[in-house]
Structure formats: structure tokens, C-alpha cells
Amino acid sequence: MATIFSMIVAGDIPSYKVAEDDQFYAFLDINPLVKGHTLVIPKREVDYFFDLTDEEIGAMQIFAKKVAVAIKKAYPCIKVGQAVLGLEVPHAHIHLVPMQKEKDMLFTNPKLQLTPEEFKEIAANIAAQL
């Protein structure tokens, strides 16, 4: 059975796309910690991040770096934090979170409630920086 992320890649479930290439897809987290919180996933369905090949991990980090640079330009912050948790969806993914302080990366923080228009604007702002 396909994961929700595989269905997003296939276009069966809508997402707020930020970036895409032949191997990876970046889109806004629908339960963001802060504006600009983005997920980067491999298009190949793999549950555990460390089950990706060394080449895939390297390429995914390079792709994530490009997205992180764009996030920082669109949403000025001290740094863009990166987290690999992987328990909530059985599909490898990286969280990229603009940070003003380390506590911005606490996944127990309240999530933002954004409108579809706000999500579209955020995705467009980040994509425009790529």
C-alpha cells in the first residue's frame, strides 16, 4: 500500500509543492511549526531514512540544501534546522524548519493553523527563491 507521501508525489493527494526533481519532492508541512516548514522526500518509497543508498542520502541532502537556502531567503531566519524523525509517516523525509531559536524545532510546539491561501503564498515565496 502506498504511503500518503507516495500519493502526494503521484498527484493523487494535493500538496503545496516547493521544489521537485527526478528523485526528490519538497512540499510544505500541513501542520507547520513555523511559516516555511518544508518536507523533503525521496520519490522512491523507502520507510527508514538510513535504508536509502549512500548515493540517495547524498543527493537528498544536496536537494534539501537548495531548498533550505531558498527557505532562508524567503523567510529570513538565523538558520534552517533539519530533522529526520520518521515515525509519523512510513516514508523517509527531512523536515526543514526556519529557526530564530532552537525551541522552534520542538515538535511538541503548537502547530500553525494556516489558510490554503497562506500555504500557497508560502510555497510560491520559497519556490521563487530557487
What does this protein look like?
It is globular, with a radius of gyration of 14 Å. The chain is an alpha+beta fold and 130 residues long. Helix 2 packs across helix 3. The chain has a five-stranded antiparallel sheet. The protein is 31% helix and 19% strand. 32% of the residues are buried. It starts with a helix and ends with a helix. The model has no long low-confidence stretch (mean pLDDT 96). The chain is built from three helices and five strands.
Overall structural class, as computed from helix and strand content, comes to alpha+beta
Strand content: 15-25%
Strand order of the largest sheet: 1-2-3-5-4
Number of helices: 3
Amount of helix: 25-40%
Rough shape?
A: globular
Question: How far do the termini sit from each other?
Answer: 33 Å
Radius of gyration, taken over Cα atoms and rounded to an integer in Å: 14 Å
Number of DSSP strand runs: 5
Largest sheet: 5 strands, antiparallel
Average pLDDT value? Answer: 96
SSE arrangement, N to C: HEEEHEEH
- List segments where confidence is low: pLDDT < 50 over at least 5 consecutive residues: none
